Amino acid sequence: MTALLLEDISFCHPGGGCLFHHLKLAIGAERVGFIGPNGSGKTTLFHIIMGLLKPDSGRILLDGRQVNDVRAWRQLRRQVGFLFQDADDQLFSPTVLEDVTFGPLNMGDDGPTAKAKAMATLESLDLAGFAGRITHQLSGGEKKLVALATILVMAPEILLLDEPTNNLDMATRERLVAILADLNLPMVIISHDFDFLAKSTDIIYSLDHGHLHRSESSHLHSHPHAHIYGDHPHAHGGY
Amino acid sequence: MNLECFSAGSSPLHRADVRLKMIGAFLLSVTVALCYSLSAPLLALGVALLLLGSARLPLVKVGRRLLVVNLFTLLFWLTLPFTVPGRTVMEAGPLVVSGAGINLAALITVKTNAIVLIFMALVATSGVTAIGHGLAGLKVPPRFCMLLLFTYRYIFVLQQEYQRLRRAALLRGFRPATTMHTYRTYGNLLGMTLVKSWQRGRRVQQAMELRGFQGRFYVLEGRPLAAADWGLLALLFGAALGVACMELLGAPGGWS
Q: What's the ipTM?
């Protein structure tokens, strides 16, 4: 099992405020949810984990070894898959199949192997019919699922998902919940969607003023609400 | 904005392999461009019209595009007959029309239309994606192919971003006029689009690097060439040869 350890991470914007102070976090065993106000640094933390941003202090350990050179970062990026907030940033190839094969080809697979892996991944997500589609012509929900396929095809051992349910309709959101439930991978999910986090994660942390707080486990409560569009009732969660 | 309005279709030219179509279009248009006489480009124009017919393209759209091209050649008709020295064929007051000038303007017009039609029938009948792959298949340096494909992939995203900003301005009562306020607003719109494009480019690059990108592009194999593809190339090659023969052997036409 892959274990990712963040030790003592601090990050300040140049000339601006600080986002984290000596933050500590272990990733690898559970499914973790992150909530927090806009601008609290959730996405920044993901970028630090992936090595896209350099923290002012602290270190990242992958399976007990410090990640500090190009080779170690390459290894980490192979083991940790990061789903961007905007799928348009992630899908740049003309066709879906090409985009999904991009990662495996970079990892050194030959054409047929990469294609076979890509098709298997697309099939596992019920997207087999999308292989020849042009990426920029997909709908928002389709783009999100294909972007997930481009990550999963690289067989990551940990997933980082940045607001995966943003702008998804009910059906696609439920489909994503089901896919994630089947994955059996440790993951960290940033979301403002409490219901989604409750369904998909074991622990929820809130990031507030540079510190992570473990949220209290959910407690039963009820509140009345109206179904104004009675023709289109929304599904209720499991409590 | 539709950059591929001719690429959908089921004509033989739509189905033909894009690599051989590009080779054929290149051969034909270079041959046409090198001609000095009028008759050889006229033959090429005939070939282009035949190709256009077999591609079954929507004629109204084709006409509209030719109109744009011929606005450009109109400039030549307005200047060349009066400026190129040669035998006088007409005099109207101070203006002297020369045969050589008319000849040159006609030559440019025929060549331009022939080449544009050849490219419409042969290249525009493939999508940009297929053209990018085809270029890669023809061993064009991958950087150029990727430049084309990336431009095509993100031009719509950038256009949408620009439209969003423009709509936001319009909805707050912005009406373009010849004022400093208008110029400043357009400056801001363009500047903001530029900044957003730059940020988008950075995020795309990050996404690529996270998937192990190290500067090498890979192109998946295309479909194998069929006999019909080679047949088309042979026809196009024959046409180019015919145009070249006419140029080299034929009598010079026109007024020169």
A: 0.72
